[in-house]
Design a protein that fits this description.
The chain has 158 residues and is of the alpha/beta class. The protein is built from five helices and five strands, in the order αββααβαββα. The protein has helices at 7-23, 47-50, 57-69, 87-96, 137-157; strands at residues 30-35, 38-44, 77-83, 100-105, 130-132. A five-stranded mixed sheet has the order 2-1-3-4-5. Helix 4 (87-96) links the parallel strand 3 (77-83) and strand 4. The radius of gyration is 15 Å and the shape is globular. The mean pLDDT is 95.
């Protein structure tokens, strides 16, 4: 039986998006936003495709979710993302008032959700998001490691 309300279920959907990024030769990060048990936004990194440094999966998903809700405030929403949000994305998550952020792979060098810094729960900000980390971590890690191993191998062959 598939529990369509579980963190694993929604992270699997984020991983589907990450695989789309991988296929498009983008860093394989995927995100989905859930409201009242339903996915209202799906996105993957499109930095290279759009030639836009802000086209991270989270940012694109936030924009879609705002359209779906009809408001910039995303109260009652959860964001599932395969890799810990960067500081830019974490700032946008706080501003849009996402209730909960669930991620797979931590980013100790640049994570904005508790690894390098914790923007999502910064004491002086007007909103704090609950954080759940390590959901399907191995699957998320494997996809990113494979992507970058292939990138390094292709550089060595050129």
């Amino acid at each position: 039986m598939i529990d369509r309300q579980s963190d694993d279920f929604f992270m699997n959907e984020a991983l589907r998006q990450a695989r789309r990024a991988y296929t498009a030769d983008e860093v394989p990060v995927g995100a989905v936003i859930v409201h009242e048990g339903q996915i209202i936004a799906r996105a993957f990194n499109q930095v290279e495709l759009l030639k836009d440094a802000t086209a991270h999966a989270e940012m694109l998903a936030l924009t879609q979710a705002q359209s779906a809700i009809g408001d910039w405030r995303l109260n009652g929403c959860s964001l599932f993302v395969t890799k810990e949000p960067c500081p830019m994305c974490a700032g946008a998550i706080v501003h849009t008032r996402i209730d909960r952020v669930i991620f797979g792979l931590a980013d100790p060098k640049a994570g904005g959700a508790g690894s390098a810094m914790n923007i999502l729960q910064f004491p002086t900000l007007n909103h704090h998001s609950a954080i759940t980390s390590g959901v399907m971590e191995q699957e998320c890690r494997s996809l990113i490691q494979t992507f970058f191993a292939q990138k390094r191998a292709s550089k060595q062959n050129n």
